[in-house]
Structure formats: C-alpha cells, structure tokens
C-alpha cells in the first residue's frame, strides 16, 4: 500500500511521520506518535473520545485522514502539561470537581473545552454544554464536567483582569 | 486503517477534474464525515477515493460585484456560521448549519458534501433550496450552472455526473436582498441528531411592511428529497401580513409534502410538524423583516 511522509507540528514540536495513506489521524497519533491520551472509542465520530485540536479547533481524529494533517498544528492532551509534566489548570479542575470517573472520555472532553476556557467573556452553562455536545460520558452525568470547565474559565478570566 | 483501495491526491482543482474524468468511479472525498463512516461500516470497502479536502481554492465565501454570493463547497459548517458575509446577508444559513452534529462534526463537515450526499435531512439543503441557490458543476470539459431545485433526483441521488465536481454554490443578490429567513430543526436531541423535520422560510415584505412580496418555504424530511412548498408560496405572495396569512399557508402545505412514517416519527406527526414549523418560521421571518402579524 501507498506510504507517504508528512510533516506537522504535534504539541509544539515539528515532527515527520512516514504513514500508510489509509491511516486515520487517530491511528497516527496513537501508533506512530505514541500519544495514548487520544482514545480509540466509536471510530465513527459519535463519541468524541479521540478529540484533538487541529489549528486550534476540535476535530474527531478517528474520522480524519492522517495525510490531511500535513502542515497542520495538532494538539493533544499531552501538550497541555508543562515540560516537567505538571498538569494544566483544566486537568486539575476535572480532578477537583470530580469530573473524572472511569476517565476514558476525559481527554476528549478536555480538548473540546480548550476553545471555550480561553474566551474573554464568561459562558453560560448552556453554552458550555453546547461546546461539549460532541462528547459522550457514560459515568458522570455531565454536571461535574460542566462545573470543571466553568470554574477554569472563570479563573482564567479573573487572571487576565489582574 | 480505512478499507479503501487507491487514494488520489490532486493539488489543484484542474488536477482533480482530470482525475475524475480518468476515474469516474472514484468517490470524491471532502470532509469525509459521511464517506469515512461508511467505510468503517464496510459499505464502501475497496473503493477508490479522490481527496479534495486539501484544495483551499474550493474553500471560502465571497461576494461578486453584482452582489452574487459565492460559497465554495469545502467551506466547513463552522466556516459558514462565523463568516461575516453569511452573517450579513443570509444569517439563516449560518443558523441552520450550526445545528448539525456537534462542534467536531461542524469543523470537518462541508456544505458541498452536505448537499451532494443528497439526503433529505441535510440541514443546509432546506435553506439553500429556499434561497434558490444555483450550483456550479465543473468537469474537465466545462462548467454548467444548475438550479439547486433540479439537483435532487431521489433519496441519495443527485444530478452530479461521474466526471463532475461541485465547485461553487451561488446565491444571486435578488434572492438574498431585503430577505429575512428562519430555520427550525425538529429533532429529539439538541445535538448529534438528524432532523425529524426541518423547515426553512424566508420572506421579503413590501416597503410598508404590510404585505408579502415574496415568501419561500422549504422542508427537509417532508419528502424523499428536500423540497419547496410552491403551492403555499403562491397562495401567500401578495397577501397581507395578518393571522389569515398563516392559515392560508398551512392549508396549502399538504399539496407539496409527502412525509412518510419512519422509526423517528409517524407520517401524521410529520404532517403536524410541517404545518406548525412553517407557521412558526413564517412568524419569525416576518418579525426579522420588520413586519408584525396583525400589526
């Protein structure tokens, strides 16, 4: 089968991968890049467990051809912690608020929440729910996930005003 | 790993058209939120694909000097919703595509893929039908402009020749000027759901805002393809903006719709939705146009 070299930025570092053209971005990130936060869930874009940011926007990596990542900037959950491995505020908020139970959906939810926690103005809970409407969680009942996102957004807005 | 055979990667539209002519059986892959899923289900196993997703020349929204709005087919749903020209001239289209799937699907799904797929539930289709959109279909041999009204041939079947690619969706100025629209999607959930029924209405009022100059109503899932309710439109045009107008519209809707019973809803319920959604979307459109029922 046809193979191809692609170059993209993954979590801030420029990388080159030699991939089978039939691979999904999910296959490439888990298999070639070893980024296991990207979860292999439904494989058809329903559950959001494989959500990553491509040029800042959330995409389901299971229904995205790896070759399309050529020249793009990809961000996974691994890219949120600093060089020492200290987790980010949104990850800590998920722990503090009890928004993690089995944890399988968590990386996807956190990646979907990134665009909204960086907003200038506070979002309503309804707006937060809409932003995470492409992600499924079968454990938490969502309330605590919304709490964690709301809390982080408020904290970041507060810090910007200082 | 997806189970397809050969993947062609054209770098320009010209190359894509040449490839489509050489391999008419190969499927065009835009955002892939339908095709890649069908591949997972095994329905398209072994097919050949022409990936046009990376062709940025097929992405974006523009306005011509004559006021014609040009939507390139690879524009994502998110790209449509946030585009200033869409917000200014056809905000109803941005609202409609903002009700598709969830954020991730709206980032990958394209408006061209949505209509070329040819399903009756496509959320962009109703509004584009209601705005008399024109489709620019290109092949290596030339270009033809087809009214979108003539594009759907049956469920999942469209008048796109094997060697053709949709290269633009055009909305003439005459169609969006002084025109205000409203879309209602009725579904069981607020996200990640397919419409049980969709209704897109737009209205142009007379200068005094007292009469209907032009009313257009389109439905999704009220027939095997997205359709216009031309009988009700004819009855409404020229009518005064009053409560009787709504009764005249709803009384004439059954002439054009052909809803069916599916696991989502019965024919009777869909018929009820046809009337209720058309009524509500008409009221909302008139209000957006500055008119008032009984005002």
Describe this structure in words.
The complex is a heterodimer of chains A (162) and B (295). Chain A is α+β, with helices and mostly antiparallel strands and 162 residues long. Chain A has 2 domains: 3-80, Beta-grasp domain (Ubiquitin-like (UB roll)), CATH 3.10.20; 89-161, DNA polymerase, domain 1, CATH 1.10.150. Chain A contains 5 helices and 5 strands; from the N terminus they run E-E-H-E-E-E-H-H-H-H. Chain A has a 5-stranded mixed sheet with strand order 2-1-5-3-4, with helices on both faces. In chain A, helix 2 crosses helix 5 (143-161). Chain A starts with a strand and ends with a helix. The model of chain A has no long low-confidence stretch (mean pLDDT 97). Chain B folds into 2 domains: 7-50 and 58-174, 2-Layer Sandwich (Uridine Diphospho-n-acetylenolpyruvylglucosamine Reductase, domain 3), CATH 3.30.465; 178-288, Enolase-like, domain 1 (2-Layer Sandwich), CATH 3.30.390.50. In chain B, helix 5 packs antiparallel against helix 8 (123-130) and helix 11 (243-252) packs antiparallel against helix 12 (267-288). With 295 residues, chain B is an alpha+beta fold. At the A-B interface, strand 4 of A face helix 2 and helix 6 of B.
| Alpha carbon gap, first and last residue of chain A | 56 Å
Return the string of H and E elements of chain B. Answer: EHEHEEEHHHHHHEEEEEHEEEEHHH
Describe the largest sheet of chain A.
5 strands, mixed
Residue stretches of chain B low in confidence (pLDDT < 50, at least 5 long) are none
Largest interface: A-B, 30 and 28 residues
CATH domain class of the largest domain in chain B: Alpha Beta
Q: From the 3D structure, determine the CATH topology of the largest domain in chain A.
A: Ubiquitin-like (UB roll)
Tell me the number of strands of chain A. Answer: 5
The helix fraction of chain A, in percent, is: 25-40%
Order of strands across the main sheet of chain A: 2-1-5-3-4
Assign the CATH topology of the largest domain in chain B. Answer: Uridine Diphospho-n-acetylenolpyruvylglucosamine Reductase, domain 3
Shape of chain B: globular
Radius of gyration of chain A: 16 Å
Helix-strand makeup class of chain B: alpha+beta
Q: Give the percentage of residues in beta strands of chain A.
A: 15-25%
Residues in helix, % of chain B = 25-40%
Which architecture name of the largest domain in chain A does CATH use?
Answer: Roll
**Alpha plus pi helix count of chain B:** 12
Give the overall shape of chain A. globular
């Amino acid at each position: 089968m046809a193979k191809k070299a692609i170059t993209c930025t993954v979590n801030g570092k420029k990388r080159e991968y030699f991939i089978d053209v039939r691979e999904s971005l999910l296959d490439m990130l888990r298999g070639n890049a070893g980024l296991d936060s990207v979860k292999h869930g439904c494989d058809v874009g329903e559950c959001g467990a494989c959500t990553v940011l491509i040029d800042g926007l959330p995409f389901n990596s299971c229904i995205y051809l790896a070759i399309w990542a050529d020249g793009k900037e990809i961000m996974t959950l691994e890219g949120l912690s600093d060089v020492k491995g200290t987790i980010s505020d949104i990850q800590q908020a998920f722990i503090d608020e009890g928004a993690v139970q089995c944890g399988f959906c968590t990386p996807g939810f956190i990646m979907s929440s990134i665009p909204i926690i960086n907003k200038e103005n506070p979002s309503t809970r309804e707006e937060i729910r809409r932003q995470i409407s492409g992600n499924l969680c079968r454990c938490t009942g969502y309330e605590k996930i919304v709490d964690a996102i709301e809390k982080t957004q408020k904290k970041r807005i507060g810090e910007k005003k200082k | 790993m997806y189970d397809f055979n050969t993947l062609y990667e054209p770098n320009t539209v010209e190359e894509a058209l040449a490839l489509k002519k050489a391999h008419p059986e190969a499927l065009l892959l835009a955002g892939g939120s339908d095709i890649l899923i069908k591949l997972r289900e095994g329905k398209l196993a072994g097919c050949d694909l022409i990936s046009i997703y990376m062709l940025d020349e097929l992405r974006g929204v523009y306005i011509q000097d004559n006021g014609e709005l040009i939507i390139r087919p690879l524009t994502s749903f998110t790209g449509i919703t946030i585009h200033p020209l869409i917000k200014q001239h056809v905000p109803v289209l941005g609202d409609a595509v903002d009700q598709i799937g969830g954020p991730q699907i709206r980032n990958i799904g394209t408006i061209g893929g949505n209509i070329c797929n040819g399903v009756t539930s496509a959320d962009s289709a109703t509004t584009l039908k209601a705005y008399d959109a024109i489709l620019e279909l290109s092949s290596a041999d030339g270009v033809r402009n087809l009214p979108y009204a003539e594009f759907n041939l049956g469920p999942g079947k469209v008048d796109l020749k094997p060697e053709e690619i949709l290269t633009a969706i055009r909305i003439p100025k005459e169609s969006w000027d002084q025109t205000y629209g409203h879309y209602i999607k009725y579904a069981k959930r607020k996200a990640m759901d397919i419409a049980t029924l969709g209704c897109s209405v737009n209205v142009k009022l007379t200068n005094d805002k007292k009469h209907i100059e032009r009313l257009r109503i389109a439905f999704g899932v009220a027939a095997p393809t997205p359709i216009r309710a031309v009988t009700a439109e004819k009855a409404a045009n020229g009518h005064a903006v009053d409560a009787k107008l709504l009764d005249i519209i709803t009384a004439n809707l059954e002439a054009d719709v052909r809803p069916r019973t599916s696991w989502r809803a019965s024919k009777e319920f869909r018929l009820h939705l046809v009337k209720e959604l058309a009524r509500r979307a008409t009221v909302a459109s008139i209000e957006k146009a500055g008119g008032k029922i009984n005002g």
